[in-house]
Write a structure and sequence with these properties.
The protein is of the alpha/beta class. The protein is built from nine helices and eight strands. The chain has helices at about 15-25, 25-35, 35-45, 50-60, 65-80, 90-100, 110-120, 150-160, 180-185; strands at about 1-5, 65, 105-110, 125-130, 130-135, 140-145, 170-175, 185-190. The chain has a five-stranded parallel β-sheet, sandwiched between helices. Helix 1 crosses helix 2 and helix 3 (about 35-45) runs antiparallel to helix 4. It starts with a strand and ends in an 8-residue tail after the last strand. The relative contact order is 0.18.
């Protein structure tokens, strides 16, 4: 099987803030970012953890939005915007794994709302991402469960695939949030993709 991180691995950078800008529009996006500057600074200085910083950002942008409305916007973002963020070498490697008949899993701290429609379109077998809490049909912005980051990626893969000894694993990542996932792989690639052989 092949496990791929998303932001910075399959894409050229972050996808969450482009999604929030797509969703909110420029004026509201920049107003919210200005409001969140203390949070972003605290995260950059490692005063608050990844999970908490992400939740504060998402609550600011998403709290009170009907789930169906957010799913519709996320699907449009996946279709119209995400393809422009992709790395050609990464996507070529993904399709190489598909051609070998390997199981492919997208494992990302990004939110599943837009990962799933994009991954379904390109042909991933499974998506493991960060999930959002929903109450009475409205998104709260809080996380439902753990942020799919660091060791949580391993927990999610183990829950999906069973004992690690039962399969051979390729893993692709780009940073500290992928360290544990890369460590569990037979073939680990950090910020690189082997050339695709025809």
């Amino acid at each position: 099987m092949a496990a791929f991180d998303f932001d910075g691995t399959l894409t050229q950078g972050d996808s969450l803030f482009p999604f929030l800008r797509f969703l909110a529009g420029d004026l509201t996006f920049y107003r919210n970012v200005a409001f969140l500057l203390p949070v972003l600074l605290a995260y950059g200085l490692r005063v608050i953890r990844n999970h908490r910083a992400k939740e504060l950002v998402l609550v600011r942008f998403l709290n009170g939005i009907p789930l169906q409305e957010l799913e519709d916007k996320a699907s449009l973002f996946a279709r119209d915007c995400l393809p422009h963020l992709l790395r050609t070498d990464a996507i070529e490697r993904f399709f190489w794994h598909k051609a070998q008949g390997h199981l492919t899993v997208l494992v990302s701290a990004s939110i599943e709302l837009y990962l799933i429609p994009w991954a379904d379109r390109v042909g991933f077998d499974h998506v493991l991402g960060t999930r959002l809490e929903v109450a009475e049909g409205l998104v709260t912005g809080r996380l439902a469960g753990s942020n799919c980051h660091g060791i949580e990626k391993c927990h999610r893969l183990n829950a999906l695939l069973g004992p690690r000894k039962d399969y051979r694993m390729y893993a692709y990542g780009d940073g500290p949030g992928d360290r544990e996932m890369l460590a569990m792989a037979d073939h680990a690639f950090l910020k690189e993709f082997p050339p695709v052989k025809n």
